[in-house]
Amino acid sequence: MHRLALSTSIATLLLSSSCFADTHAKTQFINDSILPPIHTWQGKSESLLVASDNPWVTPFELQNYLNSPSYADTVSWFDKLVQSSPMLKKVSIGKSPQGRDIWMIVASKAGAATPVQLSQNNQPTVLVQAGIHSGEIDGKDAGMMLLRDIAHGNKAALLDNANLLFIPILSVDAHERSSQYSRVNQRGPINMGWRTTATNLNLNRDYAKADAPEMQHLLSAINQWQPDLYIDVHVTDGIDYQYDVTFGYNVKQGASPKIFAWLDNTYRPEIESALSANGHIPGKLIFANDNTDMHKGVSYWNPSPRFSNGYGDARHLPTILIENHSLKPFKQRVLGTYVMLEQTLKTVGEHSKTLSAAINQDQQRLASNIVLTWKDEPQATWDFKGIDYTLEKSAISGANVVRWTGEPKLYKDLPVIGNTKADIQVTRPNAYYIPSQWTAVIEKLALHGIEMTSLAKPITITAEQYRFEHPKFGQQDYESRQTVQADTISDTIKVTLDAGTIKIDTAQPLGNLAILLLEPQAEDSLFFWGFFNTIFTRTEYIEDYAVEPLAVKMLAQNPQLKAEFDQALKDKTFASDSDARLRWFYERSPYYDQQYQVYPVLREVR
Questions:
Q1: What is the CA radius of gyration of the chain?
Q2: In angstroms, rounded to a whole number, what is the distance separating the alpha carbons of residues 116 and 224?
Q3: Strands 319-324 and 245-248
Q4: pLDDT value at residue 535
Q5: Which of 21, 353, 517, 587 is most enclosed, with most CB atoms within 10 A?
Q6: Calpha distance 35→43 (Å, rounded)
Q7: Is 107 within 8 Å of 163 (Cβ atoms)?
Q8: What are the angstrom distances between the C-alpha of 373 and each of 204, 313, 469, 572?
Q9: CA torsion sign, 57 to 59 to 61 to 62?
Q10: Could you give the strand order of the β-sheet that contains 602-604, starting from the edge strand earlier in sequence?
Q11: Strand partners, 416
Q12: CA 92 to CA 70: how far, in whole Å?
């Protein structure tokens, strides 16, 4: 069949299918008939919607809460709104690979247009980002409504004690790769953008390595505008449950324990109260341990710095990951997001002093031991507001398939497993030194905002240097990179460093981030992401006819070496491998490459 005919046939099938028809709520989206049934939702937050004849009605409201505007229509609507209000400014944080501006709305009482102007009002700043995965676009439409109400409704007081930075679409190119067939597990909007960028990068795996131009622009904006709290809006995949707005952040065991305490004890209670009062069901981030058996429990996530909330933990920026439930209708999700964003501005404005104190304490903590990797361990049990289901044998797959019934079910005391047990740890170095030729690494660290200096003259130091053994490279490309992990051996050396060598002191606000990017065993280190892979390439060799007489000479001159070789020959595998035997001598000769599999970044210890 031609692709167009096939798409038309699929659309007809989805609309006409009654195998899993929704018997509770009216069918609104092309994929409703293959998704689990839901109950019709009503909530107090529906009062936030305005009529179609309102001069500032959003495209979302105008299209009966079923669709979201295109990039061009979004920008056009914001242009009119910004021109109408002295409190709003529109700035570009950079251009996408396809040449689209990534716009940010700056909302403040005084109408600040630059980072300096915004900082002069001495109020906390909230950065809200929508569309990092452009099919998950709830935050854009919620933010449009909220800014409309700030400018022309009854919400201007939200800016009395806080500023708002709003990026309606981060992944702007993917936003325009829009169709009805982007996210089959999600109820609306009718047309959804794509998950990955125009070059197929997942931006919510890119915070640490920052390969995508969109991510580079975002990190630059964070460094320039210095938000006090950051929200990244998503929509889930996975299981069915009652919650419509779930959200999470860092864990108390991580790099920012004071921020965690503020988020858990101040922020979450106020957000959940506001959502509940408006007819929503808020919850923690939810990931089932087994999507076919809820009794196996759920997982508690300690994210690494490739993710927004893990990156926020590493740089001591309070970061909220919102995951609206994909099986709830678009209208319900957008309104829940609005309520959460509005309450965020209230909470941050009211508790700005304690928030600032938490951030400062984490920045100044300078922990002596840094955890690089984590292991799973049992957590306290959760009472989980789930949805009942049955298991049926599928005639299509031959395996069991979950049939969600749409009926609420409370799962008491579900087991929870979380990666919160410290695994690999290192002591905090005083500083790192990076040879000037590693420009890609140095530029990446600078992009993150990490402070560094260049040596004005040569210095001699005692430092730790890593050597690697048994490197294991990723078997396939991951996010445009060949990842690598290796066993490390630490040597203490005395070395003279050239002028121009880059020094990174870890006693700085982003010291923990620098450590997690430069320690090779860290989960999202630049080493892991392949920035140093050239050290695993051998470029000089020795021929057998040269190494064999060299080996004879070495044995004759060094009795200790002969004893070591005799011991090595007791390994039958080694003894029977002529290449390994010759390589053994080459590696111990002065001709061997002393930089092979040696990490060029040095650690200066206290």
A1: 28
A2: 9
A3: antiparallel
A4: 97
A5: 517
A6: 22
A7: yes
A8: 19, 14, 19, 36
A9: positive
A10: 453-454, 502-505, 431-434, 602-604, 459-473, 484-497
A11: 298, 379
A12: 18
C-alpha distances in Å from residue 192, one per residue of 16, 69, 178, 189, 556: 21, 10, 5, 6, 74
Give, rounded to a whole angstrom, the gap between the first and last alpha carbons of the chain.
Answer: 69
**What's the rounded Cα separation, in Å, for the pair 40 and 95?**
41
267 vs 254: CA distance, rounded Å: 18
Residue found under tokens 């606000």: 509
Name the DSSP letter for residue 36.
P
Distances from the Cα of 405 to the Cα of 36, 39, 102, 240, 241, angstroms: 7, 10, 41, 10, 11
Q: What DSSP string runs through 220-285?
A: HHHHHH--SEEEEEEE--S--BS-SEEEE---TTSS-HHHHHHIIIIIHHHHHHHHHHTT--EEE-
Q: DSSP for 67-134, please give it.
A: ----HHHHHHHHHHHHHH-TTEEEEEEEE-TTS-EEEEEEE-TT---SHHHHHTT---EEEEE--SST
CA distance 168 to 82: 14
Rounded Cα distance, 547 and 92, in Å:
61
Query: Distance between CA atoms of 135 and 154, rounded to whole angstroms?
Result: 30
pLDDT at residue 25, as a whole number: 65
Structure tokens at 462: 């005692």
User: Which pLDDT does position 541 carry in this prediction?
Assistant: 87
Report the run of H or E that residue 513 belongs to, with start and end. Answer: helix 511-518
Q: Determine the angle formed by the axes of helices 330-350 and 268-277, rounding to 10 degrees.
A: 140
Separation of CA 127 from chain center: 15
Report phi then psi at 282, rounded to 5.
-85, 155
pLDDT tens, residue by residue, 64-91 = 999 999 999 999 999 999 999 999 999 9
Residues 6+ apart with CB under 8 A from 34: 14, 17, 19, 20, 184
pLDDT score of 28: 86
- 500 close to 563: Cβ distance less than 8 angstroms: no
Tokens in use for 367? Answer: 């922990």
Alpha-helical (H) ranges within 278-329 are 308-314
Q: Tell me what pLDDT residue 19 has.
A: 35
Cα 327 to the chain's mean position, in Å? 23
Residue pair 535/595 in contact by the 8 Å Cβ criterion:
yes
pLDDT under 70: residue ranges of the chain: 1-27
Give the other-Cβ count within 10 Å of 538's Cβ.
9
Q: What pLDDT, on a 0 to 100 scale, did the predictor assign at position 207? A: 98
Kindly state the DSSP code that residue 37 receives in the 8-state scheme: P
Residue type, 55: P
CB-side neighbour CA atoms (13 Å) of 31: 22
